[in-house]
User: What shape does this take?
Amino acid sequence: MPVYIWKGVNSFGEKRKGEIEAVNEAAALGQLKRLRVDKPKIKEKPKDIFANVKIFRPKVSGKDIVIFTRQMSTMIDAGLPLVQCLQILAKQQDNPTFKDVLTDIQADVETGTTLADSMRKHPKVFDNLYSNMIEAGELGGILDTILTRLAAFKEKAMALQKKIKGAMTYPTICLAISLLILAVILIFVVPVFTTMFEGFGSSLPVPTQIVVNMSHFFTSRKMVYFIIFLLFCVFLFKKIYKTEKGRLKIDALLLKSPIFGPLLRKVAVSKFTRTLSTMLQSGVPILDALQVVARTSGNKVIERAVYHVSDSIAEGRPIAEPLEESGVFPNMVVQMINVGESVGALDSMLEKIADFYDEEVDQAVENLTAMIEPFMMVFLGGMIGGIVVAMYLPIFKMASVVGG
Assistant: This one.
């Protein structure tokens, strides 16, 4: 809908200006007349030249989704019609990408399309989990409750993701600084010493020769070829990871890795139990819920295990048996799910497991950070100290010869 910039005088004779949305100029003038604006002058607001270029449009963040879900839940609980809720939220949305999405959803709902089906047209903003839970809320007449649960689920998922990223930020920064310092020393500092060592007339100590060879490598064309080779390896890795077999093998290796493997497994268990619990509490059938959980797992090994669980339940088996056969989920999780299923409280038991593993992830992240910090300090100090000692060894050798 076009936006018009207007200027005019109100009923008190005061000059006023602002912006107004209308179908056309006549409709905008009609709105200003109802607002008792005299002598209005309007013109259409110029469009941003980058507004329709996807590269320059901001993405819809998880925070945007959480805020929208919370506000939508409050409005529906207060009794506002669905179309009016979408209209209000679209108007107050600062993110132009999200604003367009909400406007499209509003238009679809006005024509009789369900909210869930309207959201499914925008999979990059509203995933399968979100749209399926909205569908369950619409069918059960508890859309406000479902939205509240969705907001809580999204907040916990964002908090978990933030913790994982936070744990990786420090070592990544330290590694980048280490490589930068190493490059500066090898490119600018070592060649100065190399020129000085050329007049010694004797062979250099082994550590010094290694550092000098590294400096020659960094300052030669071989370095360019090495960078091209690294970029090719990254490209090849991405290509392999996009294939079904490649992603399955890489995800399996990640889960079995000595340091990050246990952390990734705990994150996967937490995400699986939290998502399944939220969907079951919202009234989504367990087979549909497992299909969604599998697609949103983020790990091919977990995805295959959950699909196997879904197929086994369809055959009439309890959920605990295929979970145990998968070998992915810890025995404690399997036993607790078995107890929850036996007493008819599977959703609440899954929520308890998710809370427990959230705490486990917190502790694992703290332990990992505490372990990485001294390791990175030793690595950085040892690298720089080793280069300095290697550069001064010939000087010490020359001093001992002169002293002798």
Notes: The chain has a mean pLDDT of 83. The CA atoms of residues 4 and 25 lie 8 Å apart.
